[in-house]
Amino acid sequence: MRMDMPKIFSGFKRQQAPDEWDKTIVAISPYQLKDLTLPENRGNASLPDEKIEQQVFKIRLAHSNERVSSASMLVQRKYASRGYEASGFEKTPDRITLMAFQEDKVIGTLTLGLDCDHPLLVEDLYKAEIDALRAEGRKVCELTKLAIDQTQSAKRVLASLFHIAYIYGRVMQDHTDVVIEVNPRHVAFYKRMLGFTELGPQRLCTRVNAPAVLLRLELDYVDRQIEELGGKADTATSTRSLYPFFFTRNDEIGITHRLSQGE
Question: The domain that contains 123 carries what CATH number?
Fold first, then answer.
């Protein structure tokens, strides 16, 4: 359990009007982070040149119907390219969808589901495995609907989506574990790059009509990786981890403050 940051948020309740809540969570460049704790209208005076501004991408919440539709279209397109099926997005209080934008184009999306009033989606196939974690006193969240478009900044986009999902699930809601269903051929990537371990055997996931394996990641492991490697992509000597592309701990605190205030 993390002890360095208090729980400051309960549930996904908006503290301000929807237009305020739907502002950019964070804007990220391949070269630097900017505006983590200040409002969006701060301006770009601190950016050293136009090249950096052109490569900035932004992470936002998909609360509006338009954004949910855009996220759904990206997932359906990417899944279809791999021969998978994709069900529609369900807007529930215990599930949020994050989106990465480059200019006006959606380049990435990821949905976080909490173990609250509704069953986790992975329980369709792996209820026994999830119940076993609950019996151990674990608090489980899940990642679904992951899709990343082709971009030179794919690792940073993926890491940023994962880190903000981590902030919601771990920092704000005190979850201990995250689970995800992945295609068997992607298991090695998740193990190597993020530290997932196998929790459930290969089964057919009818939601996408493809085989799936259930993976688990203990979030205290993520705590340590962020503390050690976060924000060190420019100096990392190995490409076998996604954690150097995560935010620094100080950046995380700034983002958490923005989310808790609904800025």
Answer: 3.40.630.30
